[in-house]
Amino acid sequence: MTVRVGVIGVGMIGQDHIRRLTTVLSGAAVVGVSDIDRARAEATANCIEARVYATAQDVIEDSNVDAILIASWGATHEQHLLPCIAAGKPVFCEKPLSDTQDSCLRILDAELAFGRRLIQLGFMRRYDPAYRALKDAIRSGAIGAPIFVHCAHRNATAPAHFTNDMVITDSAVHEIDIVRWLLDDEIAAVSVLAPARKTSATVNPLFVILEMASGALVDVELSINGVYGYDIRGEVVGEIGTAALAESNPIVVKQTGAFSGRISADWRERFLRAYDIELQEWLDSVANGTTTGPSTWDGYAATATAEAALQSLHTGTRAAIPLRNRPALYQSQKADPSARILQEKPR
Ligand SMILES: NC(=O)c1ccc[n+]([C@@H]2O[C@H](COP(=O)([O-])OP(=O)(O)OC[C@H]3O[C@@H](n4cnc5c(N)ncnc54)[C@H](O)[C@@H]3O)[C@@H](O)[C@H]2O)c1
Fold first, then answer.
1. Is residue 128 in contact with ligand 1, taking CB distance under 6 Å?
2. pTM of the model
């Protein structure tokens, strides 16, 4: 089956996903696009012989469109997701689910009322082969119950429009999602610290501490002006061992008494394969009439945590994250053996 996809928002990542759908993956045809920047929509559509729709609503309502890909700004996601749910159309929505917790809950309630999942959210790290191997190592029980997770998120340079709040909402949100997924656990509280020592960075480095519901602790260093490249690090410390992401370069060059390897320039290079797998799995699930991957619940939990982290950043205090009870529609599909070990062991 060829899934006929309509794309809403054809900026940076929208165009990258269109390239992926049309030249890398199998089983998709991008049949139409819409963007509030009409000229951009037309230029994009011309390259792939797709139709330009006047509004996002027109894309969603067209019976010749099987599934929707949303890559517009986060604050617009709700206005597109609610009509998609009303029309019963499967959606791939770039992160965030929405920019506020209240908005996320309206989307969650609409999907719950519809009665089955339609939304796959764009947290692509869950499809990265290295992160998947890390999760397998935890699930195998080889390192025992997770106690700590150490993460680092370093970019070479921050884009000109980047703000200190975006370090939380656009950067840390990836770690927020990935540790929930790795540990199959919710985040109970967050504290954000800024180093007292001033740096020349245009965007402050930050240190985020996440307290998981199971009791595990997570630290995330965010250095968005890290200068030397894009470097994503993650190490899980368990009761009897550790598992960590390896260096991401595929080869090591040894020469004249030193060894070296490439550091990714940015997130597009580091997670290239993850984005491909993410969208291929979306296409496959749409063709099968199912929805998998990061859910509306995951999007709500991530935005709720980001909101609490912003509160902590601005007040200097620890912020609790009171989530709603998790509905059955979003219960995790697989039991996590490492979580069981933590509960069963005397502490
Ligand atoms: N998963 C990731 O790693 C990742 C990476 C980058 C961006 N993103 C997310 O993707 C989304 C887009 O980011 P971007 O960097 O491509 O932004 P962008 O500004 O480059 O592109 C967004 C596009 O959406 C269009 N748009 C805005 N409102 C619209 C509306 N109501 N209807 C139709 N089109 C509309 C804009 O005109 C623009 O062309 C954001 O939610 C962002 O957080 C995710």
1. no
2. 0.94
